[in-house]
Every structure is written in structure tokens, then in C-alpha cells.
Amino acid sequence: MPIIQSVERALKILDLFNEQEPELRITEISERMHLNKSTVHSLLRTLQEYGYIERNTENGKYKLGLKLFERGNFVTYNLDTRTIARKYLLDLSLKTGHTLHLVILEGKEAVYIDKVEGKSGNVEGSRIGRRATLHSSGVGKVLFAFRTEEEMNQILDGYIFEKRTTNTLTNKEDFLEEIAKIKKQGYAIDKEENEPGISCIAFPIYSYTNKVIAAFSISMPTPQLNDEQLNRIIPIMEQTAEQISKEMGYRS
């Protein structure tokens, strides 16, 4: 796969800055990159436009922008969520025998950041890094349900309700009706809405900001999702959600 030269150059510019040299002049960047100043200036302007580079107006030097701090915190935060949640998900998988997933919201999609395989091992379609639609998955519905009204409207703007199975909700009205139900009961159920033969129960995870930052789910073959299973699993999942959220700093 070919490397895009302009992207490579921009990333190399970011790598020039360190603790010893937090600020650099354009001439210094030009010399170290072996590029003419006009090319470097164009690259810097683009990076500056998106917040990855800032210019010190007092001395004319360039430095790393706050966007990198923001992105870095995002990555670290998700890693912390995964680390904290994992022991609880492992315990929950042992108690139930089912497969567990940990998911975060990224844009208008849910992204799997961890998976604990259940002893039954019958959920093969999921993997870490996979994306899921918000309207068809239990975790996606949970991540959407506990956003602010403004955030919901932003997500729904241009959102496509792709039909994944015969059970998928395929319009905004039905989806919002389901979301209202989820907000009231505190969890979501996906009955073969995302994948034929597989059903899920999903709960939210809160952070110290009292906002939902992730969701986790139990997945199982649909025939196993009966009233007896729901009555047994939901209280255990609710307790797990409280434990993880509490360790993330959440105070109800």
C-alpha cells in the first residue's frame, strides 16, 4: 500500500517536537525535513487549521497544539475504561457463560474495544475494532439513549437506518420510541436486530462526569434469551454496570 507523501510529511513534522525542543522556527523545521520553506509553511498552515500545531505570536515559533492533547486523552481514557472494565467482564462471563463486549461511541457508530469470549463460544461475528450501527445493536442503542438532546440531533442528522436483519428498526420514529423505553428501564435489548440468530442485553457505563462513556453487552443465541434468562442476567449486569461506573468515578 503506497504512503501518501503529504500525510507522512505532516506526521514527521509533529515528531520533531519534544521536551528538549517544544518550539521550533520554520527555518529549523525546513532544514530538518529537507524541504523548502514554502512547502513547510503549507503543511504547518494545514496542521494549524486543525489545531495540531500552534504558532507563538511573540517569537514566531511553532509548537504542538491542544488537539493532540485532546486526542491523546481520548485514547488514554478509552484504555483506562477497558482496563477497569475487563476484570468485571471476565467475572460476568464466568457467571453467565456468555460472551461480553465493551463498546464506545465514535461519531455515529459504536466501536468494540474489548471482547471476553464465553465458554459457549458461539458469537463469532464480533471482534475488537469492529463497528456497529447505533439503531440495530444493543450497545449502540444504549450509547445513543443517554446522550443530550443536542448530541442526539447531531447524530440523527443524515443518519441512515440500514436494514441489517428482518428485525432491524428502519425509521427514526420507531427508533426514538425504543430509545424512550431504554432511558426508562436503563438497559437495551437487541433481538436479532443486528445479526441473525444472536440477541444481546446492553448496559451503560458512566464516568466521573456523570456521562455515559461506554456500554457493555452480553450476547447469546436468541433461543437462550427467555424470561428466565432475563430475570437472572439483568440484575447481575446492573450490578456490574454500577461497579464499573463507580470505579470510573461515577457518583449517582
UniProtKB/TrEMBL annotation:
<dbReference type="InterPro" id="IPR036390">
    <property type="entry name" value="WH_DNA-bd_sf"/>
</dbReference>
<dbReference type="GO" id="GO:0003677">
    <property type="term" value="F:DNA binding"/>
</dbReference>
<dbReference type="Pfam" id="PF09339">
    <property type="entry name" value="HTH_IclR"/>
</dbReference>
<dbReference type="InterPro" id="IPR050707">
    <property type="entry name" value="HTH_MetabolicPath_Reg"/>
</dbReference>
<keyword id="KW-0804">Transcription</keyword>
<dbReference type="InterPro" id="IPR005471">
    <property type="entry name" value="Tscrpt_reg_IclR_N"/>
</dbReference>
<dbReference type="InterPro" id="IPR011991">
    <property type="entry name" value="ArsR-like_HTH"/>
</dbReference>
<dbReference type="Pfam" id="PF01614">
    <property type="entry name" value="IclR_C"/>
</dbReference>
<dbReference type="InterPro" id="IPR029016">
    <property type="entry name" value="GAF-like_dom_sf"/>
</dbReference>
<keyword id="KW-0805">Transcription regulation</keyword>
<keyword id="KW-0238">DNA-binding</keyword>
<dbReference type="GO" id="GO:0003700">
    <property type="term" value="F:DNA-binding transcription factor activity"/>
</dbReference>
<feature type="domain" description="IclR-ED">
    <location>
        <begin position="67"/>
        <end position="250"/>
    </location>
</feature>
<dbReference type="InterPro" id="IPR014757">
    <property type="entry name" value="Tscrpt_reg_IclR_C"/>
</dbReference>
<protein>
    <recommendedName>
        <fullName>Glycerol operon regulatory protein</fullName>
    </recommendedName>
</protein>
<dbReference type="InterPro" id="IPR036388">
    <property type="entry name" value="WH-like_DNA-bd_sf"/>
</dbReference>
<feature type="domain" description="HTH iclR-type">
    <location>
        <begin position="4"/>
        <end position="66"/>
    </location>
</feature>
<dbReference type="GO" id="GO:0045892">
    <property type="term" value="P:negative regulation of DNA-templated transcription"/>
</dbReference>
<comment type="function">
    <text>May be an activator protein for the gylABX operon.</text>
</comment>
